[in-house]
Amino acid sequence: xxxxxxxxxxxxxxxxxxxxxxxxxxxxxxxxxxxxxxxxxxxxxxxxxxxxxxxxxxxxxxxxxxxxxxxxxxxxxxxxxxxxxxxxxxxxxxxxxxxxxxxxxxxxxxxx
Amino acid sequence: xxxxxxxxxxxxxxxxxxxxxxxxxxxxxxxxxxxxxxxxxxxxxxxxxxxxxxxxxxxxxxxxxxxxxxxxxxxxxxxxxxxxxxxxxxxxxxxxxxxxxxxxxxxx
Lengths: 112, 108
What we know:
heterodimer, A: mainly beta, 4-stranded antiparallel beta sheet, globular, B: mainly beta, 6-stranded mixed beta sheet, 5-stranded antiparallel beta sheet, 11 strands
């Protein structure tokens, strides 16, 4: 158990809908990362937050947004969902931005 | 943008054998990481290694940044080493880019 929790584990929704994925980092970790893993695109880095502020941005679509709250948990919001958004979404946390990242179990999203 | 390649794409090993996985990248990088994804999907960060050599038990990694490659060594492989190994590089402009992975199967 990495200490990083993600909810929900699975999510099935329809095209055009909006969903929110939640991540709770390990106790004491200030950085949160979001990744997407799909069959088409492989693993992609989406975005990183550090202590509530956006630190780095990757291949995150404009339909997606994220935030990190004062209690350090993070949410990834996916809107106007398309079939191609079906993927496994991982969250990871680390103490600082450049050390070992600890991954959650992922949220599997299926868009029908 | 930067290109990241991994070789071999697939590898089957007998338990106890050693192996070397390679990650090549096409431009200078600020950071490089190795990850392992087990057959159940769990991702584990193995090494954060922008340059030099690091060891952790039966695993070690070497990055030669000037020659744009990194190697992951697995010694005395075990069935629990099975899964997919990814390298990921970070540049000033591309942020984090993952390679396609090497799928490793260790058979008893």
